[in-house]
Amino acid sequence: MSSPLRALLVLIVLGPVLAIGIARDGRTLPLFSREIGAACTECHTTFPRLSRAGIAFERRGYRETGAFGSVEAPGRIPLSVVGNASATFSRPARDPLGTPSEALEGRMARNALELRSAGTLGRRFSFALGAGYTDPGEDLEVGTAAVRIVDLVPRGGLGVRAGLFDAELPFLSQTRRTTFEPYLTPVTFDARGLELSGAAASWNWTAGLVSSDRTRSGPSSRARVRDAIEDTYWRIERDVRGCPLAAQMLFDRQDSNLPAHTWLQHLRAELAGTMGRSRFAVTPGYVFDRFDDRPAAGIHERHQYFLLETVALLDRPGRWTATARYEHDYRSRNAIDPEEHRQLATADLAFRVLPSVKLALDCSHSEDRLTRRRGTELEAGVAASY
């Protein structure tokens, strides 16, 4: 028996045992439920996705938004531990000549451990911290380190968040997805800087001024510029008959491909919404990316991402969850680059042993039409938290 298969069997057998060992009882979830005694359904449709009440709770700096109270932590920092381990079985992608795929390959994948903390610091201040380790990396990664000030203008009229945090639509998040497979669509980006937000009537708005990931995610350039607080983004959100809709625009500077230029302009527009009820939701999304550093017109690089995702609770207690998602990335043809299509289809079936422990089976199929490469991957694992 191969080592990945043995590891998978161990995960499946030990999942329920691990659940009993780390969960206080069948009603609690990590951190917030322990602090305020609220059921998981108060904040989540299916963990880790946030419900409307959960989104409001986070925006209010983890303070009372109805049936539950605040996370008060005078003199101590509440802690939550989140971890997952999984085994992946994949068929190697075909090469450009269409050579038949080889036998299935197995390996351990997405082993991760993360520490999280969040709470209030007085009447108006709150904090969120998160750091973790993920294979195959060797260093500790800091994911969140932010402070929020609420109600600078009463009733949520103005709030401030500063530090390192995820900038995203609240219902479409890379870190709150219900599949092992990440989104192909760039639905989240790391923000390091300052964010203003507020609410007026049925609208919510956000404006951010953050640092660019020039030397980490931008193309290589001889004319490098140090990271600076130079990028802006804007987001508006509104509920329409109980269905959240949102739009976000990012103005991002990246390192240029051209030695004579110190930067290129990267524009990203995102539009998405969620329709349905708590037990069944459909989320369509669209992202437009444009990279502009070439001096002549008509040769800019443009990407269009189309996304459609469905999440359904299969039983009344919500222990069984099914997720299906399709994504398509289309790069427009120009004088330099050919037209390109990439697509990803993902399906996930998850069973929650307890609110803090989940067993899941994830199947994904990816395809790149330009290089004629495609592959299928089956992943099974356990995710647990305390």
Question: How does this model look, in words?
Answer:
The chain has 386 residues and is mainly β. The chain has a single domain, classed as Porin. It contains 4 helices and 17 strands. It has a 16-stranded antiparallel barrel with strand order 1-2-3-4-5-6-7-8-9-10-12-13-14-15-16-17. The longest helix has 20 residues, at 3-22. The chain is globular and about 60 Å long. Residues 1-29 have low confidence and may be disordered.
Number of domains: 1
Number of strands: 17
N-end to C-end Cα span: 32 Å
Q: In the CATH scheme, what's the topology name?
A: Porin
Integer-rounded radius of gyration = 22 Å
The fraction of residues in strands falls at over 45%
| Global shape | globular
CATH level 4 superfamily: Porin
Q: In terms of topology, how is this protein built?
A:
Layout: H1 3-22, H2 32-36, H3 52-59, E1 80-91, E2 105-121, E3 125-134, E4 141-153, E5 158-168, E6 188-200, E7 203-211, H4 214-217, E8 229-240, E9 243-254, E10 264-273, E11 275-277, E12 280-292, E13 301-313, E14 320-331, E15 340-354, E16 357-368, E17 373-385
Antiparallel strand pairs: 1-2, 1-17, 2-3, 3-4, 4-5, 5-6, 6-7, 7-8, 8-9, 9-10, 10-12, 11-12, 12-13, 13-14, 14-15, 15-16, 16-17
